Amino acid sequence: MTKYVDIPEINELFYIADLKPDFFKVIKLNEVQVGETLYPIYGLKIGADDPKLPTLGLFGGVHGLERIGSQVIISYLSTLAERLQWDQDLRDEFKTRRIVAIPIVNPWGIKTLSRSNANGVDLMRNAPVEADNATFLVGGHRISNHLPWYRGKSLEVESSTLIDFVKAEMFESKYSLALDFHSGFGVKDQIWYPWAKSTDPFPYMPEFNKLKELFEKTYPYHVYKIEGQSMNYTTHGDLWDYALLEQMKLNNNKTFIPLTLELGSWNWVKKNPIQFFSMFGLFNPIKKHRYSRTMRRHIYLIDFLLKAIAHRDNW
Ligand SMILES: [Zn+2]
């Protein structure tokens, strides 16, 4: 007899959507069965249901161990739902733009505190994309699923669910931007632009540079280090590289910029060295005040990105 897994963050999604059902839609996109347990993958749509409108995509939990990213997204969505109870300006804004989200791409990984999915595949190495000079092992490999960063043999359910959702909900938009939350690299919060596969500039680099300039002028004291993902290391199989390549094939004069937000967890370890002894602690802040700070720290970035794509004609 199969049963659904119990994940508090998933329950929270339903609670949030129930607060404002006329703005939030929760859709079961797929499910992964491991033994007798079903791990559902949920997508959310917020605002006008028109994929042509400017669309911001929020994604988290690709690496299940990096649970904090899912929690930042859910906390943001919760704030949105509460504001939509009373903020008429915000209600009006969502007539002209939308947010789509998969806060927990890899529910088995979230449940078991694993980076990979149940097949031992690192989903961020799983796409059919070959890198120029991928770093040995960490850049993705097909040696064994007992080693981290294993690429798998074909697209896993979680990966194809993410890609299909992005194609359906973002590729028709005249301007879409994805923000995929990760943690566990470096001491600073970093915004990475594509590619992961090569140090060449990605096709929307000029557009990204304008967006970056706008952000830096608007928030000169922002906390982020902004750089190309491949300036850190190149990897095979990045799902966002793959999505970008698929979007380019359409040649439809629309802009799609997938960004990765790497929350700088080494800082949490540095300030609380005991975390070094727990895998969970390496990727997630454990102290309450640090958790609260992480929850509120990225709200203005998400708000900014949504406004920037909605008002592209003004900058
Ligand atoms: Zn990650």
Describe the largest sheet.
9 strands, mixed
In terms of per-residue confidence, which ranges show pLDDT below 50 for 5 or more consecutive residues? none
Radius of gyration: 18 Å
Q: What ligands does this structure carry? A: zinc ion
* CATH architecture level-2 label: 3-Layer(aba) Sandwich
Secondary-structure-based class equals alpha/beta
Count of β-strands: 9
Give the percentage of residues in beta strands: 15-25%
How many domains is the backbone divided into? 1
Broad CATH class: Alpha Beta
The residue fraction in helices comes out at 25-40%
Q: From the 3D structure, determine the CATH topology.
A: Aminopeptidase
The mean pLDDT is: 94
Q: What is the CATH H-level superfamily?
A: Zn peptidases
**3D shape:** globular
Order of SSEs: EHEEEHHEHHEEHEHEHHHH
Brief synopsis:
With 315 residues, the protein is an alpha/beta fold.
How would you portray this structure in words?
It is a single chain. The protein is α/β, with parallel strands linked by helices. It has a single domain, classed as Aminopeptidase, CATH 3.40.630.10. The chain contains 11 helices and 9 strands. Strands 1, 2, 3, 4, 5, 6, 7, 8 and 9 form a 9-stranded mixed beta sheet that branches. A hairpin with a 2-residue loop joins β2 and β3. α1 runs parallel beside α2, α2 crosses α10 and α5 packs parallel to α7. The longest helix is centred in the N-terminal third of the chain and has 18 residues. It is globular and about 50 Å long. 46% of the residues are buried. The structure holds zinc ion. Zinc ion binds next to loops.
